[in-house]
């Protein structure tokens, strides 16, 4: 690879727009525990950007900072703080009124927005997310916080009434579960971490959160906002190697809720470490191998556009990405020609470059793994059908369209989580239907066609295999009011703005026989506002 070619992909420092530069490595030595930002003096983990630089003729990933490699001692310190703050449900946070907790979350959202520019910059440098996508992730997260607040107000309004049934007076509300451990993924390290952290918090749980291995530094600007917005011990952070800091937390048995987005293998390990797994509430977002099924009467141009976006947005590094395309044999040649043309127009470059769509891959050795998948398919009869497909440029990989892919190839079953698009042709609709049915995963599917009767025939069995069927559109998570979950190995628990409030809580009620004496007691409690649970206060 020539220096000229390298220079055309990776910039020198002076080529980076000034507002996007990292002047010097960020040495983060702070972690949040018990309401204080504490200093760490021990070993650090270097953070390497997927963006490379050439120094003395050697190409290597740019060092952009480091974060603490905490030990079991610090992990248990944060656990003690979270447990004290919860205090078996008697702490100020779990017993606070809903309106009071909302005020704290609103204060955090305000302080969070002050850090937008820094967080967006670190999203680009740490995981290679494009500037528009990084900005969208930040803004969507703030919107998610606001939508969560509105959803809680609605929920609380419904709960502010009494139910009288069979001579029993009752008031039903949702109560927190305890201490929640929240762990997000590298591809949406802000949004998907906060999609569990915020509802867990606002419902009265105390939280320990561990950022993903890739996408750690971007949380550092928010530590002060957490410290200043919540009572001590309500929010705590841990950093380091999972087996050293997460293992002890789970083995303690004092984690009540596990919110984890990652692989089913790691989720199984975490669950099994808990000494009383029947007491552990789990909210899990795991793998997916979402399929697109393009019928012979589909609008090919629309299918091409949606599949290109669905398969390659953020380099295909999304759980909701389309990870295999089934195209009817009658149209597969035309589809591949147009799809290859669309993929060829995707601009490669740096995250801040205007119009860029394909960026460096942050996972270590990811290009090697993807190349192995392509080579395996080639040895079994498949071909890379687009120009320059699969070309590796250090941490870059040009998108590869691989066809024909079939059973026995790793690409047919493994979740590639990168810019490789396997295509399979079919003549009988039972072929892709059987694929979805036999798959270990059951998140979403996309159906492309124009025959309403046929699509209806596919919808009914598909909704029993996956949790979202998309018609003539790519798989996706939003809007956030829609439920987001999966079957089989893809998920446990449901996330959406309203569903998340429920999965981090349990329905609890206060009940009394409808005697005159009990009516007087209840009326006195309500009138004199003696209880924050037993209340008819209405949040406007």
**Name of the CATH class of the largest domain:** Alpha Beta
Instruction: Estimate the mean pLDDT confidence.
Output: 95
Number of strands: 27
Going by CATH, the homologous superfamily of the largest domain would be: Aldehyde Dehydrogenase, Chain A, domain 1
Which strand order do you get reading across the main beta sheet? Answer: 17-20-21-14-13-23-24
Please, how many helices? 18
Question: Which structural class is indicated by helix and strand composition?
Answer: alpha/beta
> Low-confidence runs (pLDDT<50, min 5 residues)?
none
Terminal-residue CA separation? 63 Å
- Assembly of the depicted chains: single chain
Give a short account of the largest sheet.
7 strands, mixed
Helix percent reads: 25-40%
Short précis:
The chain is α/β, with parallel strands linked by helices. Helix content is 38%, strand content 23%.
């Amino acid at each position: 690879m020539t220096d000229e070619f390298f220079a055309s992909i990776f910039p020198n420092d002076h080529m980076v727009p000034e507002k996007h530069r990292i002047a010097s490595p960020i040495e983060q030595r702070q972690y949040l525990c018990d309401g204080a930002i504490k200093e760490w003096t021990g070993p650090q983990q270097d953070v390497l950007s997927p963006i490379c630089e050439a120094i003395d003729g050697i190409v290597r990933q740019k060092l952009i900072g480091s974060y603490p490699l905490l030990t079991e001692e610090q992990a248990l310190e944060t656990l003690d703080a979270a447990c004290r703050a919860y205090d078996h449900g008697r702490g100020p946070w779990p017993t606070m009124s809903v309106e009071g907790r909302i005020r704290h979350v609103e204060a955090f959202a305000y302080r969070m927005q002050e850090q937008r520019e820094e967080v967006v910059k670190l999203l680009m440098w740490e995981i290679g997310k494009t500037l528009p996508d990084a900005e969208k992730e930040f803004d969507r997260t703030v919107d998610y916080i606001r939508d969560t607040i509105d959803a809680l107000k609605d929920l609380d309004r419904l709960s502010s009434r009494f139910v009288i049934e069979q001579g029993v007076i009752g008031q039903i509300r949702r109560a927190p579960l305890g201490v929640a451990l929240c762990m997000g993924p590298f591809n949406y390290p802000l949004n998907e971490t906060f999609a569990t952290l915020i509802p867990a918090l606002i419902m009265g749980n105390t939280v320990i959160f561990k950022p993903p291995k890739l996408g750690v530094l971007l949380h550092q600007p928010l530590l002060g906002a957490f410290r200043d917005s919540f009572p001590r011990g309500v929010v705590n952070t841990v950093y380091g190697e999972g087996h050293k800091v997460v293992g002890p937390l789970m083995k303690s048995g004092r984690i009540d809720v596990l919110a984890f987005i990652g692989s089913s293998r790691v989720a199984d390990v975490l669950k099994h470490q808990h000494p009383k797994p029947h007491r552990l509430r789990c909210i899990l977002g795991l793998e997916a191998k979402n399929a697109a099924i393009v019928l012979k009467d589909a609008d090919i141009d629309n299918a091409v556009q949606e599949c290109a976006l669905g398969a390659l947005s953020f380099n295909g590094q999304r759980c909701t990405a389309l990870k295999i395309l089934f195209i009817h044999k009658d149209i597969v040649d035309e589809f591949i020609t147009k799809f290859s043309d669309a993929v060829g127009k995707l601009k490669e470059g740096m995250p801040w470059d205007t119009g860029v769509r394909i960026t460096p891959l942050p996972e270590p050795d990811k290009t090697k793994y993807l190349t192995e998948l392509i080579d395996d398919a080639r040895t079994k009869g498949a071909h890379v059908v687009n120009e320059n497909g699969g070309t590796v440029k250090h941490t870059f990989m040009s998108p590869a369209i691989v066809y024909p892919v079939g059973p026995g190839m790793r690409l047919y079953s493994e979740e590639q989580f990168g810019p490789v698009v396997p295509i399979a042709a079919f003549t009988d609709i039972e072929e892709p239907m059987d694929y979805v049915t036999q798959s270990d995963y059951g998140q979403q599917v996309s159906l492309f066609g124009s025959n309403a009767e046929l699509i209806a025939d596919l919808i009914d069995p598909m909704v029993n295999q996956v949790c979202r069927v998309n018609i003539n559109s790519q798989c996706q998570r939003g809007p956030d009011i829609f439920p987001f979950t999966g079957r089989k190995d893809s998920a446990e628990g449901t996330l959406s703005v309203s569903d998340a409030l429920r999965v981090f809580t349990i329905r609890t009620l206060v009940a009394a026989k409808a005697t005159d004496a009990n009516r007087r007691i209840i009326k006195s409690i309500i009138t004199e506002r003696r209880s924050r649970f037993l209340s008819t206060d209405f949040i406007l």
